[in-house]
Fold:
Amino acid sequence: MKRILVTGSNGQLGSELYELSRKNEYPYEFYFKPHRELDITKPGNVQSFLEATPADYIINCAAYTDVDMAEKERQKAVLVNHTAVKNLVKASASIEAALIHISTDYVFEGTACIPYREEDEPNPLSVYGMSKLGGEQEVLNYGKGLVIRTSWLYSPVGRNFLNSMVNLGKEKNEIRVVYDQVGSPTSAADLAKVILDVIDHSEIDGNPFRKGLFHYANEGVCSRYDLAVEIMNAAKLSCRVIPVETSEYPTPAKRPHYCVLNKSKVKREYSIDIPYWKDSLLKCIERINL
Structure:
């Protein structure tokens, strides 16, 4: 039985991978390691673990994701999002494991008017985006490395836009949300399934493992404001959402105004159907204890 190591397993994506592993639909042996049990910023820890417990696949869910705090904690963001990934690449190579790494739409500056393709030139606006781009490059230089860029990830657990809106909707009568930042909300549950389907593609269907870069997000496009309104309606919260411009809501880190990802490559090469963002959002909200 092939082994899969999941790093950063207590976050949004790691939690969803854990839920899938419990359903026994995937014929693999999983090792879920949160940061406190496997600190990938320390190369010796990663190497020692893999020597004792070799894995065939490593799914890196560990990340520094506080976009604004990264502007102040640049060194920490780079350590987790770039240097630690370099450690994983080196350790993966030592046992010839395939490495699947998750990146972000924030590697783009967001000035396009059509969805970004994998071959488009990155130009991050923030320390967070820059640090994630560095991690990407480490993985893409590895012969068995695969990067999946995603956008606006959410789940029932952890810090994310969905949970923030639900909490604010319970506390306030109205909130202000930007309408000039556009993207595709992505369910961590859907992304987790795609990652395991990618592994299945090699293990079950007998195809070679495909290294490289792929984009994945739920289908459809909306603004942050549209998403907030949909959350309030789906969660049956009476909080009014007021649209504002980004200039009226300044933050330490600059956000891309348009970061829709073109997903034709992943759909073509893996023959997957991607759920519509509203459908996946509703399923996720039904899992939240409101």
